[in-house]
Amino acid sequence: MSVKIRKSLVATALVGAFAFASSNVIADPLNDVQKAGLQIQTAAVKSQTKIDNVYGQTQELLAEYRSVVDESELLKVYNDHVARLVADQNASIESFDRQIATIDNTKQNVVPLMYRMIDTLEQFIKADVPFNSDNRLARVERLRETMVSSSVTTSEKFRQVLEAYTIEAAYSSLVAASQGTLEVDGKSINVDFGQLGRITYVAQSFDLKHAWVWDNNTKQWKELGDEYLKPVKEVIRMARKQATLELVKLPIFGAE
Questions:
Q1: What is the model's pTM?
Q2: In which order are the strands placed within the sheet that holds 211-215?
Q3: Where is the signal peptide (predicted)?
Q4: pLDDT digits (tens, 9 = 90+) for 73-83
């Protein structure tokens, strides 16, 4: 009986030892396999990460390349546009050069013409009926000053000369009245002046007892008879818009 028990214990011990040994033998390869699997998995993750990085860099390079290509095409279009602009500007410059040459020639002709026009205007004013003579001659002097001013363009100078001629032309239809003095027989007499364009230029004393008319042929004032006192008064009233325009009887001196 005891022998059987010892054999059983020995068998049990052997089985346990074998089982323990078997478990160690099986466990080691499994651990190795697991470690290998982990290493492979880790390596795969690293490889995938590298692949992802390379792919991302590739996509960035591709996008950059496409951007450069697009920008290059845009630059080509823009350069073509600029080239056309430059060509047009060069053509404009050539045209301007031709115009400048023409303007220089025009200036050479216009400037002497303006001086002659100013001289003629001054002579005309001095020969004309002497209404507002001081202001008219002062305008001529301003034109002479403008002609020698470097800050005024030639076109502006010409405009001012033409404007002076326009003003003088407008005096032909001017109806105006003013006050001043006449020197008669060494005496200074206060008078009202009346002007009907360049047709007649009259004066009347403040007391309405004397009247005169300018004779542009003799460059003198001539006293009128009493029959002209009322017409001269009416001319002055019409010039002041105190009466409506109507026909009046006045002496007129024709050019000799």
A1: 0.58
A2: 175-184, 187-196, 200-205, 211-215, 220-223
A3: 1-27
A4: 777 787 788 78
